[in-house]
Amino acid sequence: MKNLAKIFSIGLLTFSTASYSLEITPTLGYRGGGEFIDTVVNKKHTTASSEVYGLIISGEPYDGGKTFEVYYSHQSSEIGTINIPPAGPTPGSTTRVPLSIDYLHFGGTAPISEADKLKTFVSGGIGFTYMNPGVADLESDMRASLSIGLGLKMPISKRIAFRLESRLLATLFNNNSSIFCSGGCVIQVNGSAFYQGEVFAGLAFKF
């Protein structure tokens, strides 16, 4: 988590030294999807869908309505029954593991339409995913990730707008990667990415 905080601070510093307008959007939404295929036991582990909250900091350094953004989103979830090394009371015993998933991306938006009462856009970013299992014996994991989405903004006043957006998030893995390792690795991942989708809304405050 400290690494994410450092990266987020760099993003804030970038905005603080810029001369363009700033927009801050607290968000609340729902995230679903995400599964790992464990090649050791040939079993699928699925993360539970749950609420998310986050923050988007936007600036407008480009012409044509494009923006630069720092996007952060947090989910408190859990992952399906998995073995924790050393295994439980009996061979093959499993447990449910709480799992928090944080995304921190640097990217932006590009407009689709610029109507006065409804602005639509595409969004995207690249950055990091931080996965932290809520078990003391397991280590957290940080991976590169990216996102792409569609959204809309409805102006409420000169400085406030309602923002609604959906995003597809992909965390990148090499084939046969190991995650949550500590005295042994809980899951041997087969595949190139971990996919999740989320929908969120928030009020954008422009300064």
In short:
By secondary structure, the protein is mainly beta. It is built from one helix and twelve strands; from the N terminus they run αββββββββββββ.
Structure write-up:
With 207 residues, the chain is mainly beta. It has a single domain, classed as Beta Barrel (Porin), CATH 2.40.160. The protein is built from one helix and twelve strands, in the order αββββββββββββ. The chain has one helix at residues 2-16, and strands spanning 22-32, 35-38, 43-46, 50-59, 67-82, 95-114, 119-133, 141-155, 160-172, 177-181, 185-189, 193-206. It has an eight-stranded antiparallel β-barrel with strand order 1-4-5-6-7-8-9-12. Strands 2-3 form a two-stranded antiparallel sheet. The two termini are 29 Å apart. 28% of the residues are buried. Mean pLDDT is 80; it is low at 15-19 and 87-91.
Give a short account of the largest sheet: 8 strands, antiparallel, barrel
CATH architecture descriptor text: Beta Barrel
Query: Could you report the average pLDDT, rounded to the nearest whole number?
Result: 80
The total of beta strands comes to 12
Separation, N- and C-terminal Cα atoms: 29 Å
The neighbouring-strand order within the major sheet is: 1-4-5-6-7-8-9-12
Number of domains: 1
Structural class of the secondary elements? mainly beta
Any idea what the shape is? elongated
Uncertain runs are 15-19, 87-91
Radius of gyration: 19 Å
Order of helices and strands: HEEEEEEEEEEEE
Question: Which CATH C-level class is it?
Answer: Mainly Beta
Beta-strand fraction estimate = over 45%
Q: Percent of residues in helical segments?
A: under 10%
Number of helices: 1
Task: Using the coordinates shown, work out and report the CATH topology.
Answer: Porin
